[in-house]
Design a protein that fits this description.
The complex is a heterotrimer of chains A (308), B (322) and C (598). Chain A has 308 residues and is mostly helical. Helix content of chain A is 76%, strand content 0%. In chain C, the strands form five sheets. In chain C, strands 11, 12, 13, 14, 15, 16 and 17 form a seven-stranded mixed beta sheet that branches. In chain C, strands 1-10-9-8 form a four-stranded mixed beta sheet, with helices on one face. Chain C is globular. The chains are: A mainly alpha (308), B mainly alpha (322), C alpha+beta (598). Chains in contact: A-B, A-C, B-C.
């Protein structure tokens, strides 16, 4: 058994290791990216996502939209009207600008909610998988409960009780989407736990935290990548559903809220397809992008697929 | 472990989870701000004495623990209280009827989605990485990515005038016979079921496809091939049945998500199911109905999961429960 | 002999022919309007209950009016006229009213309706102090019957609203409601109502439909239609589509504003517009002991807020012109009572700003929001908008913009009716909320909601003014119409100046009906169908008599079809399975395809 390293030699050793780790990550990412490039699905997905990200980021610079600029004269103007490429909505505002601004909220809610979800799910999965036995049983039963509760109704209930604000929606979605992540992480950790390098690390005297940080997480996180991407997609879909049902923040413009107002103001009966087709189409496209990208990443990063 | 022990253990776990969810149900609906009696009688004309009398009649003036025990006992015997918004109607009756309506919709859509998913997934896996594969997979995924309610809106818009605007039956219809009524139901079921099917089957395609790809590379398939069996034969008798196993568990787990899809479909098409009941009850803060719906849906999900677990043991020869 | 026989025969024949013609004429005249058919009505909200004392929705009250009768009923000009009481007389001092009940009225279970039922109804409401109608019987000191068909009601003091009161109280059957205590009466679901009205309840499938059957023995003449079905739709889109697809024949009220232009283009649909006894308002918490924002208790603040709302603009934008700008709390449709002489608050941002400045509400901390003169409270409010009216969220947003210009911060929140009620009662915790009030042709109820003794009851803004209370009692007892009008005008003026409500608009009753199947829709004030108008349901009839062709029963065809399919499957199965069994070696020229492993 080696004596523990101390002093400047330890420092040097640690920094070298860190540099090596960074180089390893960089090489792996480059290889991953090359594989993504080769995967048509992945590329298509990535392109879509980058496009929407640009829209969300750069819209405020180029597009001006006043949420309260109601205009009684210009209700339901059709697409390709003067000044209004996608027509106007039921209070006379430009649909295209709404659409572009809506992307910001929709994407933001998706990312924020999934961040919460992955954090919760990942922690529970790590805890459950690593410490095993009682903790595992307890946490898995806890997860089972959340899997059995009907998801959308429960979210609807919490959203209705908490009140229709944006942060409540984010919290509600995040708090109910973590079970899949937890299960995934847990199963990975269980397989990892039996691998020899964990045994070796423990025999040196490495603490739990150290093992988790240095050995487990780096192996688990790539596998969580695909799952996270899909969680973001589901979060965006859920936000749009909650907004459509009237449970979202009524003063926030998102694709879901546009569909809500389109539906309740009888855009369909009035033939105002420009009001309800584009937002839904954007949602579908973004979800598709995430799905393609996530699927491709899963094929690349998941060692199960790499066998072939 | 023995099969019987396994079944018992799973049943016990399911029951325990059910009790926990019941408790959760109770806690949620009793920590909500707002006076249920005032909610029950929206009419502010009820005097304070009447309120106290009614509160006593509903047992709401008992200590919380007593209420909890009564609630648990009632739930396990199927007594779910009385509705607020439907003014005193037993919750059990309302929920039961709506559940059946939803099962008609969700059941038919799930079955169709499964069949389509298996068929298209098999085709995609067989022709893996060809153009057929990509087209099939791509279109299935695109349909899967669409919000259910949006697809419903699109179909309603495209087909307006030629399909019913909603509901389960034609208003005020006179039926000549049972078949007449059944045909009317089918007439109204067609579009909502199609919407739900289209949104569901994409996931089944994905799972079937990857599962079948896995199976096709297994040893026993290669063996069968060497023995000289035709490709189609291999598929039908060996590969597909084994590849369908993951679908069993997924269908059960999916149940809670399918309910979400049903809520959206029912809202857009005015289908009188349990999804719409929950939504309406949420709007009117009809807590007994909400509690009842949650109870029933979780019970259904638990039962479905349980059946899937047991069925998996029987279906998958690799799982040893002995 | 033969001639006499012949003449006799001739006379007999002539008599027979003439009497047959006469009989036929009678029969024919009675059926000059084709009877039968099912009228289908669509709505977005169901009744809450069929209990007459507790029902609180327009739909619930509609049901009461068609299932039960009242002694008097408003006619098409909103004037009380005879209904169950065929004639009535008033004593010279106005304190005793005698009603003569129709002899032919029966209950839906077959029993005859007698004066004792009327007495029982009034007694029950009075003795049990039943909500819903206790104000209508408050001043009755004695109710007696004289014979089976005469009721004599004596009042303890002068009441100016007796005729319209009698249009409100449903007459209930003694043999059904007898022996109930207060709790039982309030908790009764009344799921199988026994009434004397023109329709009876066949079924109510909650969340789907209410079905009524015509009362063929109705004393006022049987309705022409056989059945009426009220179909529930979850959203406006489905409702409008149903009307256009001929799945329903009528939408009685609350036609969504954005559907009007679409329906106007449909030649089979007609839109019925009329004045309605209904307004929407912003109710401002003026309760001195309430828990809302205290700055709202200052009348100058409320006046300034009123001056920063452009009602005409809201009418154009949100209601798309199907309303009129609001003013007083008496509905404009009650034209005899509505005060049109009030000096209106102008929409004037600078005057609003001036008023706030002069009253000491300045922006002391320069954050764009004014504070109270003692610097303690910000003029920041929350407006709760009823979630059932999604278009009113736009109203809220627009008002937010306007009030921003006068240094007031407004947060707009959507909430359902129960949530709003839980804020208001009992502690008055709200700042303000957007609500609507349905009134009666008599202004009594519309004025009642501002009484200080209605705080905790109908008064949802906490307004209290003793001189207003006194005037209310006065007008309630004034029998002379002109004198009463003066007092009512005065009361409206007081409320308008104190602004506890900002009445946004008087809604017009907009309904729509198809003209290809039924005719006879009655378009009167309050709409095609309301708790005032039950004439439509009684008078509507088929344009053409329904064909009596039996509907085809497809059962035998289906059985045959199933049989054929089963046979085909059996044949296919048998054919397919003749070769290629599991484990058999295939023929040499059929090489197996290897599974692709790319």
């Amino acid at each position: 058994m080696m004596p523990p390293l101390t002093g400047s030699k330890a420092e040097l050793f640690r920094t070298t290791r860190r540099r090596e780790a960074i180089v390893r990550y960089w090489k792996r990412s480059r290889k991953t990216l090359r594989l993504v490039w080769r995967s048509k699905m992945g590329m298509v997905g990535l392109m879509i996502l980058i496009a929407f990200l640009c829209i969300a980021l750069f819209t405020p610079i180029f597009v001006h939209f006043d949420r309260n600029a109601f205009n009684a004269e210009e209700i339901f103007l059709p697409a390709l009207s003067k000044h209004h490429l996608l027509g106007t909505d039921e209070v006379g505002r430009d649909v295209l600008s709404e659409l572009l601004y809506g992307s910001r909220i929709s994407l933001f809610v998706g990312v924020a909610a999934s961040a919460i979800s992955v954090l919760i799910g990942g922690s529970i999965g790590v805890f459950s998988g690593y410490y095993g036995r009682l903790a595992d049983e307890g946490l898995m039963r806890f997860t089972d409960i959340f899997l059995v509760i009907p998801q959308l109704p429960f979210m609807m209930l919490l959203a209705a009780l908490a009140g229709p604000s944006l942060q409540n929606i984010i919290i509600v979605i995040g708090a109910l989407s973590w079970p899949s992540t937890a299960r995934l992480v847990r199963s990975q950790i269980i397989t990892l736990k039996e691998r020899t390098f964990i045994e070796r690390a423990r025999s040196i005297g490495a603490g739990d935290g150290h093992i988790i940080r240095k050995h487990i997480l780096p192996n688990v996180i790539p596998l969580m990548f695909a799952n996270t991407v899909l969680i973001i997609a589901v979060a965006i879909l859920t936000e749009s559903t909650l907004a459509f049902l009237g449970l979202g923040d009524p003063l926030v413009i998102s694709w879901g809220s546009m569909l809500h107002y389109a539906f309740t103001s009888l855009a369909m009966s009035n033939g105002a397809w420009w009001y309800f087709v584009p937002p839904g189409f954007c949602i579908a496209l973004v979800i598709l992008g995430f799905t393609f990208f996530g699927y491709a990443m899963d094929e690349i990063l998941n060692p199960r697929f790499r066998r072939r | 472990m023995e099969l019987r022990t396994y079944i018992l253990r799973r049943a016990a776990t399911a029951f325990a989870v059910f009790l926990i969810i019941l408790t959760l149900n109770f806690i949620i609906f009793h920590t909500i701000p707002g006076d249920p009696i005032r909610t029950l009688f929206q009419d502010p004309r009820i005097s304070p004495e009447d309120m106290a009398q009614l509160r006593h009649g509903f047992g709401l003036d008992k200590p919380l623990m007593d209420q909890y025990l009564i609630y648990m006992k009632n739930s396990l015997t199927g007594e779910m209280g009385r509705s607020f918004s439907y003014y005193g109607d037993p919750v059990g009756d309302i929920v039961k009827e709506r559940l059946i309506n939803t099962l008609i919709l969700v059941g038919s859509a799930s079955v169709l989605a499964l069949i389509m998913g298996v068929a298209i997934g098999t085709l995609a896996a067989w022709k893996r990485n060809t153009k057929t594969d990509f087209t099939l997979l791509g279109s299935s995924l695109f349909l899967y990515s669409m919000p259910t309610f949006w697809l419903g809106m699109l179909m309603l818009f495209a087909l307006s005038g030629s399909v019913p605007s909603g509901g389960m039956y034609t208003p005020g219809a006179n039926y000549a016979g049972f078949l007449d009524r059944f045909l009317d139901l089918m007439h109204h079921l067609l579009v909502p079921m199609t919407v739900l099917t289209l949104v569901l089957f994409g996931q089944y395609v994905m799972i079937m496809r990857s599962s079948l790809i896995d199976v096709l590379s297994e040893d026993y398939i290669v063996t069968a091939n060497a023995k000289g069996l035709t490709g189609k034969n291999i598929l039908r008798h060996h590969a597909v049945p084994n590849a369908m196993l993951p679908l069993v568990t997924i269908t059960a787990i999916n149940l809670s998500f399918v309910v979400g899809g049903a809520i959206q479909t029912e809202t857009v098409f005015s289908w009188p199911g349990i999804g719409r009941l929950m939504y309406d009850a949420l709007i009117t803060r009809d807590y007994p109905i909400l509690q009842g719906c949650f109870l029933v849906l979780t019970a259904v999900a638990l039962v479905a999961n349980f059946i899937a677990d047991i069925a998996y043991v029987f279906l998958d020869p690799r799982v040893k429960v002995r | 002999m033969r001639l006499r026989n012949g003449i006799m025969a001739g006379i007999v024949c002539a008599v027979m022919v003439l009497s047959s013609a006469g009989l036929l004429g009678v029969v024919y005249a009675a059926e000059s309007v084709p009877s039968g058919g099912t009228l289908r009505i669509g709505w977005l909200q169901e009744p809450d209950t069929l209990n007459p004392f507790v029902t609180n929705t327009v739909q619930g009250r509609m049901m009461q009016k068609v299932l039960y009768d009242t002694l008097l009923m408003w006619d098409k000009d909103l004037v009380p006229t005879a209904s169950l009481a065929t004639t009535w007389t008033t004593s010279t001092d106005g304190l005793t009213w005698t009603y003569n009940i129709n002899h032919n009225a029966t209950w839906s279970d077959g029993q005859a309706l007698k004066a004792s039922d009327v007495k029982f109804t009034f007694d029950m409401i009075k003795d049990l102090n039943l909500s819903g109608f206790k104000d209508q019987v408050k001043y009755m000191s004695s109710i007696t019957t004289s014979g089976d068909y005469q009721v004599i009601v004596t009042y303890s003091e002068q009441v100016g609203t007796i005729a319209s009161d009698m249009c409100l109280v449903p007459i209930l059957p003694q043999h059904i409601w007898t022996g109930m205590n207060r709790t039982a009466a309030l908790a009764a679901t009344n799921a199988a109502p026994v009434g004397s009205g023109p329709f009876t309840l066949t079924s109510w499938v909650k969340g789907t439909s209410v079905e009524l059957a015509a009362n063929k023995n109705y004393w006022g003449g049987a309705p022409h239609v056989d059945r009426v079905v009220f179909q529930f739709y979850a959203n406006s889109e489905a409702l409008i589509n149903a009307l256009r697809n001929n799945e329903i024949d009528m939408i009685p009220k609350e036609l969504p504003p954005t559907s009007i232009s679409v329906l106007n283009q449909d030649t089979n649909v007609k839109i019925a517009t009329n004045v309605d006894l209904y307004y929407r308002e912003i109710s401002i918490n003026s309760d001195a002991t309430g828990q809302g924002n205290p700055t709202l208790r200052d009348v100058h603040v409320r006046q300034a807020l009123s001056m920063a709302v452009d009602k005409q603009m809201l009418v154009d934008l949100v209601q798309l012109g199907s309303a009129e700008p609001g003013s007083t709390i008496v509905q404009k449709a009650a034209s005899a009572w509505w005060n049109d002489q009030i000096t209106l608050w102008p929409f004037n941002i600078s005057r609003a700003n001036e008023l706030l400045n002069d009253s000491g509400y300045l922006d002391f901390d320069s954050d764009g929001i004014r504070e109270s003169p003692d610097h303690a409270t910000e003029m920041s409010y929350t407006l709760l908008v009823l979630s059932r009216w999604p278009e009113e969220m736009r109203t809220g947003q627009q008002i937010q913009t306007w009030w921003n210009l006068i240094g007031v911060k407004l947060t707009v929140q959507s909430a359902d009716a129960n949530t709003i009620n839980s804020f208001v009662y009992p502690d008055y915790k709200q700042d303000m909320f957007l609500w609507g009030y349905s009134g009666q042709p008599d202004p009594n109820f519309s004025l009642l909601i501002m009484l200080s003794n209605q705080i905790g009851d109908w008064n949802d803004c906490g307004y209290a003014n003793t001189s207003y209370d006194a005037l209310y009692d006065q007008q309630a007892k004034t029998v002379n119409m002109e004198q009463r009008q003066t007092i009512v005008n005065q009361m409206q003026d007081i409320i308008y100046k104190d602004c506890p409500y900002i009445v946004l608009y008087y809604m017009t009753a907009k309904g729509a009906y198809r003209i290809d199947t039924f005719t006879g829709f009655v378009n009167m004030p309050t709409g095609l169908l309301s708790d005032v108008n039950r004439y439509t349901l009684r008078e509507v009839h088929l344009i053409q008599a329904e064909s009596t062709a039996k509907k085809t029963d497809y059962t035998p065809w289906a059985i045959a079809a199933i049989g054929v399919i089963v046979a085909l499957i059996a044949i296919a199965y048998a054919t397919m399975h003749r070769g290629g069994r599991k484990g058999e070696n295939p023929r040499r020229d059929q090489r197996p395809e290897p599974p692709q492993t790319k």
